[in-house]
Amino acid sequence: MTTPLHGQMMDVPLAVSSLLAHASRYFGTTEIVSKRVEGDVHRYTYRDCERRAKQLAQALIALGVEAGDRIGTLAWNGYRHLETYYGTTGFGAVCHTINPRLFPEQIAYIVNHADDSYVLFDLTFAPLVDMLAPQCPNVRGWIAMTDEAHRPRMSTDASCYEALLTEMDGQFDWPLIDERSASNLCYTSGTTGNPKGALYSHRSTVLHALGASLPDAMGLSARDSVLPVVPMFHVNAWGIPHGAPLTGAKLVFPGKDLDGKSLYELMEAERVTCSAGVPTVWLGLLNYVREAGVRFSSLERTIIGGSACPPAMLRMFKDDYGVEAIHGWGMTEMSPLGTLARLNWEQMQRSPDKQRRLLEKQGHVIYGVDMKIVGDGGRELPWDGVAFGDLHVRGPWVIDRYFRHDTSPLVDGWFATGDVATIDRDGFMRITDRSKDLIKSGCEWISSIDIENVAVAHPAVAEAACIACAHPKWTERPLLVVVKRPDSDVTQDELRGFYEGKVAKWWIPDDVVFVDELPHTATGKLHKLKLREQFGDYILPSARKVQNCPLTDEVTAGSGSTPVPE
Ligand code: AMP
């Protein structure tokens, strides 16, 4: 065997601390602006942030925290949370962001499973901490992220963040870190079974930050003022707290106020150019700007993901407000970014209609992610935009296994996402459903996402969810559950009629039910499992007819030639 000729380049580890160190040294005066839980707006610079992150590292080390220990956070998007991102990982501890919107029992499970040694929390979550503390005996201390003046009254013996920092001088050098050691821990929302932990490494986090910042991904730059609406407790706010210091972008944190008015006012005040969040948040923002009759003066683009973005929303951003809305897809197990819908030069020469149809999909992979769709027996399916199958991914920021699970979830080296998708000739991926949300009508599949997208394009519909209902003849048929806009009196028949010509006839929901609100998961996605439980006994009118008269054939089944309308 011949010995390989090694490159002669510096072996500098990809450490998370290098991102903030870079921003502090080269973008030292760039601002980080935060709306605080205390009620005011706080502003300082990357240089200040690094100094305080070092003070936090010193304080945690003084408390006995060691490399590899997990430090939990229950916090909104804000500067202290950012300091915790770096003040923990910077000396080798693991930053474990916890979603406070989960049920307290799930949070206690997560804290215990992660074996968090300390948990830092925002004032909002003091009552939650009082509930959690007795259930989490291994936590050595709870730290309120505030100053002495705002220290909350609690039954838990919590220490004060600012008091801890004041005792430290910030004279601290980030130690050399093995890039393969763990940096961050995030748990999946766990709508089925217990939440599972994705343990990122320094290497995967830095590579993801680089990939996510690329021009055809989020395209972050030192010319940007970025407002992540996506919470820092949900998959590291899609990597923005890492990508912003890497590129030198100004950061604007909204704190706990995520309603349309608060977001709009902060965007205008801080000249925000780029934002990112889930569709439900944008619904609130768009409703506000429409009702208030205001326009965006600085916002150039927004990344929309976490659940399928209705095409009507993309159109509204672009056509009514001149804001580029970029549809993206990813998951906790992928750090999270996988694809974004952005066109290449050749695609931009196509007709506006063809461009629009590409942009409605979940998009093209960014470098670092490889994807394929597979059918029965793991057979790879063609990229024709029609064939749909299980979406598998792999890459340096995709998990290899779950934290503290012995068995690998990989199939032939690929991670099975649980999503069902098509990929077209352009390499644009379109999610047709979560595999468990697809509706099986006869021997054909119906995409619940497509049915919902049509429904929310109707002016009288505020939100819609489509689920499968048992059917004696077709196995399952779609039921549409709708929240109407205030003052609308749309009927079931009108809504069903709205589908004519938009989807195959046999995709039209058999029934429409109006409700006051739909259940959501802790990450703002439609909670289909809960909805299915809620409508578990529901009998569709078409099912009743079949039961009464087996020969009645109300539903025209699909032929199988066009499983998914493009
Ligand atoms: P999470 O791990 O909580 O971020 O959830 C990841 C899951 O959210 C994915 O596997 C998808 O099912 C769903 N998801 C994320 N982005 C999108 C999107 N743009 N369209 C449809 N589903 C999405």
Would you kindly provide a written description of the structure presented here, covering whatever features stand out?
This protein has 566 residues and is of the alpha/beta class. Among the domains are: 17-215 and 230-248, Rossmann fold, CATH 3.40.50; 438-558, GMP Synthetase, Chain A, domain 3 (2-Layer Sandwich), CATH 3.30.300. It is built from 16 helices and 26 strands. A nine-stranded mixed beta sheet has the order 2-1-11-10-12-13-14-15-16, sandwiched between helices. A hairpin with a 6-residue loop joins strand 14 (324-330) and strand 15. Helix 1 (17-26) runs antiparallel to helix 2 (46-62), helix 2 (46-62) crosses helix 3 (79-89) and helix 9 (260-269) packs across helix 10 (279-292). The longest helix is centred in the first third of the chain and has 17 residues, at 46-62. Residues 549-566 have low confidence and may be disordered. The structure holds adenosine monophosphate. Adenosine monophosphate binds at residues 188-189, 235, 305-309, 327, 329, 331-332, 336, 362, 417-419, 431, 434, 523.
